[in-house]
Specification:
It contains two helices and 27 strands. With 291 residues, it is mainly β.
Length: 291
C-alpha cells in the first residue's frame, strides 16, 4: 500500500502527483504513463514522509523513499532538486496555527488549528486541532494529540483516532477505522462503523446497523440498535442496551450487557460477565463466569 505522500518522478525531473490520491497506480493511469518492464529508464515511484509522524507538519523533516527494487543513477543526480520541490508541495498542503470559518475542496494536513466547517476536504492528518463539522464526504486519515471533531455528516469518514481524539456525533454512514487511547465517539447513526476500540475507548450510542469490530481495555457502548453488532469485548467492556437482532461475539473479563432484545445473541461470556435481560430468542452459547 502506498504511503503519504506519493508521486512519480520523470527522468527530466518533473514530478507527477495529485493531492487527492496517494496511489501510484492512480497516478500512472491519470498521466497515461507507459508502465512496461523498462520503466526505470523513464521514471521512478517515490514516497515522501517524515520518519516521525509527530513531525508531519514540518516539511523540512520529510525524506524521499524510492518505492522501487533499485534506484537508477539518473535519479540520484536529481534527488536533491526533487526533494526541494516535494517540500514545497507539502508546504502548500499544511494548515498550521490558523482559525478558519470554512474550508472547501482541499487536501490538507491540519495542525494546531480550528475550522468551523469542512466541505469535501481530504485531511490526511489532524494533529491537535478542532473541526466543528465535517460534510460532503470530507475525510480525515488520522487524528491524534487530543484533536476533536464535533459532527460528521453525509458519509464523512475518519480513519484512525489516537491519543484522546474525540468525535461528538457521526451521522449518515460515517465511519471510524480504529480508536486508540481513550478516543471517544458520542453517537453513531445510520450504518456508522468502528473497526477497533482500544484503551478505554467509548461510543455513546450506535443506531441503524452500526458495527464495532473489537473493543479492548474497558471500552464501553451506551446503546446499540437496529442490528448493531460487536464482535469482541475485552477487559470490563460494557454495553448498555442492544436491540433488534443485535449480536455480541465474545465478552471477557467482567464484561456486562444491560438488555438484549429481539433475537440478540452473545457467543461467549468469560470472567463474571453479566447480562441483565434477554428477549426474543436471545441466546448465550457459553458463560464461563468465575465462581
Amino acid at each position: 500500500m502506498c504511503k503519504f505522500y506519493s508521486a512519480i518522478v520523470l527522468k527530466n525531473g518533473d514530478i507527477l502527483h495529485n493531492p487527492w490520491t496517494i496511489s501510484h497506480q492512480d497516478l500512472i493511469e491519470e498521466f497515461n504513463i507507459n508502465d512496461d518492464n523498462a520503466f526505470l529508464k523513464r521514471f521512478v515511484k517515490i514516497e515522501f514522509y517524515p520518519d516521525d509522524n509527530n513531525e508531519i507538519d514540518d516539511p523540512l523533516k520529510y525524506n524521499i523513499h524510492v518505492d522501487e527494487s533499485e534506484i537508477p543513477e539518473w535519479f540520484k543526480e536529481i534527488e536533491d532538486r526533487v526533494k526541494e520541490n516535494m517540500i514545497e508541495i507539502i508546504r502548500r498542503m499544511i494548515i498550521k496555527n490558523q482559525t478558519l470559518k470554512i474550508l472547501t475542496g482541499k487536501c490538507i494536513i491540519l495542525s494546531n488549528s480550528s475550522i468551523n466547517k469542512m466541505l469535501n476536504v481530504n485531511c490526511y492528518f489532524m494533529k491537535s486541532s478542532n473541526v466543528e463539522e465535517m460534510r460532503e464526504s470530507s475525510k480525515i486519515g488520522e487524528m491524534w494529540g487530543s484533536s476533536n471533531v464535533g459532527v460528521t455528516r453525509e458519509s464523512s469518514n475518519v480513519g484512525v483516532m489516537r491519543e484522546s481524539s474525540k468525535i461528538a456525533m457521526m451521522w449518515g454512514s460515517s465511519n471510524v477505522g480504529e480508536m486508540w487511547g481513550s478516543s471517544n465517539v458520542g453517537e453513531m447513526w445510520g450504518s456508522s462503523n468502528v473497526g477497533k476500540m482500544w484503551g478505554s475507548s467509548n461510543v455513546g450510542e450506535m443506531w441503524g446497523s452500526s458495527n464495532v469490530g473489537e473493543m479492548w481495555g474497558s471500552s464501553n457502548v451506551g446503546v446499540m440498535r437496529e442490528s448493531s453488532k460487536i464482535a469482541m469485548m475485552w477487559g470490563s467492556s460494557n454495553v448498555g442496551v442492544t436491540r433488534e437482532s443485535s449480536n455480541v461475539g465474545v465478552m471477557r473479563e467482567s464484561s456486562n450487557v444491560g438488555e438484549m432484545r429481539e433475537s440478540s445473541k452473545i457467543g461467549e461470556m468469560w470472567g463474571s460477565s453479566n447480562v441483565g435481560e434477554m428477549w426474543g430468542s436471545s441466546k448465550v452459547n457459553k458463560d464461563l463466569r468465575q465462581k
